[in-house]
Automatic annotation (TrEMBL):
GO terms for MF: agmatinase activity
Gene3D superfamilies: Ureohydrolase domain (3.40.800.10)
This protein's UniProt keywords: Hydrolase, Metal-binding
Database matches in SUPFAM superfamilies: Arginase/deacetylase
Root EC class: hydrolase
PROSITE patterns hit by this protein: ARGINASE_1, ARGINASE_2
Protein's name according to its UniProt entry: Agmatinase
Length: 290
């Protein structure tokens, strides 16, 4: 993928036209090859960009404007349809390049499996990293119906790579009993149902550490984000998720990268989900790119 010019299609509002001058790189991972229920998240990144034109460039929450942050929209990685192995390899190669250039990767999915190659790339540069994970689901399976490369295995793989005690999951409300047992036995932190209050308690112990943040849009209740592949009732509100993003922004965390995944526009004709996702991306850029 070329970095010497802006993406030829739609770009996220106020993205910087020059890769070299940018501090962060926004990119899409349009993949939904292993979803277990409803496909369609491969269309998420493009639509999030398209609706971003309706955003204000200024965040009242953070008193900051997008023009204050130089971020380059690199477009979508051209992943091979139906080939998770090759797709994962391409994502890791892409992020390796971004990190080698000293930039912060901001990913848009795509199914949650796309986070796995990003974590592998991040861990090579930041071996002492931690992960903050916001999701409805544990994603701690070893495999899904015999397939180890699955959106249901991403956090298990990541925990085994960086150590379970370095993974902090929030908002979890669904998973196998065995997944919760594995987390407990191996020292992984899971905060069920809620995000903001348990996050506040954890942030001090993560101060100064390199942290990657991955957000599955289904951490939100379906009333706030119906456009996703695996909806699960009982989630948090959009207001709480925004507050959680801002809590991280005001903390002493070193955010080394982040992503927002599992936005599937086809299941939300009102476009509530993609508009919410677009605002979340804006706040992640303004709050976490110092």
């Amino acid at each position: 993928m070329r970095f010497d010019e802006a993406y030829s299609g739609n770009v996220f509002i106020k993205s910087h036209p020059n890769y070299e001058e940018s501090k962060a790189v926004l990119y899409g991972m349009p993949m939904d090859w292993t979803v277990s229920f409803r496909p369609g998240s491969r269309f998420g990144p493009a639509r999030i960009r398209e609706v971003s034109i309706g955003l204000e460039e200024y965040s009242l929450y953070l008193d900051r404007e997008l023009e204050e942050v130089k971020f380059f929209d690199a477009g979508d990685i051209p992943l091979p349809f139906g080939n998770p192995e090759r797709s994962v390899a391409m994502i890791e190669e892409f992020v390796d390049k971004v990190l080698a250039d000293g930039k912060i990767p901001i990913g848009m999915g795509g199914e949650h499996l796309v986070t796995w190659p990003v974590i592998k790339a991040m861990h090579k540069k930041y071996p002492d990293m931690a992960i903050i994970h916001m999701d409805a689901h544990t994603d701690l399976r070893e495999d899904y119906e015999g397939e180890p490369l699955s959106h249901a295995t991403i956090i298990r793989k990541s925990a085994e790579l960086i150590g379970p005690s370095n993974v902090y999951s929030f908002g979890i409300r669904s998973g196998l009993k065995e997944e919760f047992q594995w987390a407990k036995e191996n020292g992984m932190k899971i905060a069920p149902f809620e995000v903001l209050e348990p996050l506040k308690k954890v942030l001090p112990e993560l101060a100064g550490r390199p942290v990657y943040v991955t957000i599955d849009i289904d951490v939100l209740d379906p009333a706030h984000a119906p456009g996703t592949g695996t909806v699960d009732c009982g989630g948090i509100t959009a207001k709480e998720l925004l507050a959680s993003i801002h809590e991280i922004a005001h903390s002493e965390l070193q955010v080394i990268g982040c992503d927002l995944v599992e936005v599937a526009p086809i299941y939300d004709p009102s476009e509530q989900t993609v508009n919410t996702a677009s605002k979340l991306i804006r706040e992640m850029i303004l709050g976490w790119i110092k």
